[in-house]
Structure prediction request, 641 residues.
Amino acid sequence: MSKSRSNKELVTDVKKMSFRERNRLSGGYLLKSTLRKYLVSICRFLLLFGMCFMILQPILNKISVSFMTEADLYNPIVIAIPEHFTTENYRLAAELMSYGQALVNSLVISFTIALLQVTVCLLVGYGFARFEFPLKRLWFACVILVILIPPQTIASSLHLHFRFFDFLGIVKLVHGGTLNLRGSVIPYYLMSAGCMGLKNGLYIFMIRQFFRNIPVDLEEAAYVDGCGMLRTFTRVMLPQTKPIVTSCFLFAFVWQWTDGFYSKMFLGNIKLVSTGLARLVDSLSAYIQRMTGVLTTVSIAYSNCILATGTLMIIMPLIILYLFAQRAFVESISTSGIKM
Amino acid sequence: MKQRKRYVGLQRKKAKAGILFIMPFILGFLLFMVKPLAQSFYMSFCNVELSAGNYNPIWAGIANYIHAFRVDPEYNRLLTEEIVRMMLYSVAIIVFSFFVSLILNQEFHGRALVRAIFFLPVILSSGVIIGLESNNQLMANLANTIEQTTQGISITAVLENILRTSGVGTRAFEKLFEIIDNIYDVAIASGIPIIIFLSGLQSIPSNMYEAADIEGCTKWESLWKITFPMISPLFLVCWIYTVVDFSMHSDNAVIEKIQKVMIEQMNYGLASAMSWVYFLLILAFIGITSAVISRGVYYYE
Prediction:
């Protein structure tokens, strides 16, 4: 008791001493370590500040450009803060992309697709993580294959596949010919239901890893108590999957939102923000031609300005989503413990 | 004699349930992957003729492959360029993200904010946006004017000159400087690897570092003796992810070429052949490199 007290006194004594005094007592070690600590933090600050600036700079640049008039773009004095502040660019970009409708369409499609994909991938991931069945390794190899195959490889034949759609000859029997499913949303929903959507293999892999890290005891207890397989899954396992489900859902939503490849292929005639953005420059020149009646080429600076505005308008919902769900994005990947 | 796995009783029931659970994947794979894949493989050996309402492939042997390699003026060049670029950038991305995650794992003020910023590109530079970013003329012009007006002030240019005149391995340095000049591309591609590395770093038990510290191990030594082996399995994961992600990006020159052949020239056969060559090369590359890496991987458990 007395020893600990004397220790405490020693500590308070040391705290009362001046820095120079303490440094002398430690033989110069204190000064050296404090200096090193500050030096490290300054270097770290500079490094991280530089890298963060580098990542954020394009967005900041877009924001400042999006408020400029065309005259400001050519003015060498104007760099970041516009001289003639305008919101005209936003109005024009919104009109060219038919923003309101595209936003609603994109929201509906991204939400439903993400929901469908996550549900299906959850089932499949659980199946791979928990059950032993014949050919399991083969099917899992197929999952890896799905991750590795670039969708562009099979794009052309998917095109034809859905152009002349037939399922085991059933459609031919009923309908008397093949179905043309191009230009409708059905193929993409079908593909999502079959885990063949955008990056679905990755979700299956992540979910499988997540389930493998959960101890099996709970499920075994449920089985012993006479709970069926599906019931165990919905009642016992599902409540625990919140982190991985949120992260997969957010990824599915965001990647679907910005995806151009599948959208262009299957959802070509539905107005989406992603395809609208891809066509923005073309529609700008068409618009200006219509307004002036003269065949003109739009200047690079102006079309890029409109493009920057359009990009900002598209990523704005995502940034808002990210602000709210930032923890879910970052932490759920960490908790899923991806390992091989 | 090797005993065959038998599925009886509960095991049988579980096996059935397991197959039911992965049924969506099996169906999807058979319906939407196997057929298009086989078809595209078959088409790569054919001349595909499109007519109204139908298409008919005409068997042409390996003519498409010969065309891709020996007739097409760009394909060889694009393929080699793209694969060399992929190797260099994947290494750069892995090194960069490992380094950043080491920094982000330390304690400092505003750590959450910095992490959020580093993860932002995963969201903002996906899909169509990345394609628009890469041909942003305005930014390119701006960069050119800056380079012209601030001649000689750029630190990397000065360093580059010094190293070049000293004459050490010029070509290797050129590649290195190319990567440093494009550090933005590296940074925006390393969001997910950083998160994976961070999760790995946090799962290393701290008592290892304490023990090493007490034994007189410096920080530098414990980085190589503890941190590096402990997260080596994650290097494999990140490597595969990075390579796959890089090779599928829509601003990839080979992919652009394939799309151009398919959509503008309507040559489905040639496009399929090109994409199959590319796909098999990537697959072989991933296979070889991950076999090499997994030899060095250390599993703690």
About this structure: The mean pLDDT of chain B is 80. Chain B has one domain: 9-29+70-296. The longest helix of chain B spans residues 75-104. The radius of gyration of chain B is 25 Å.
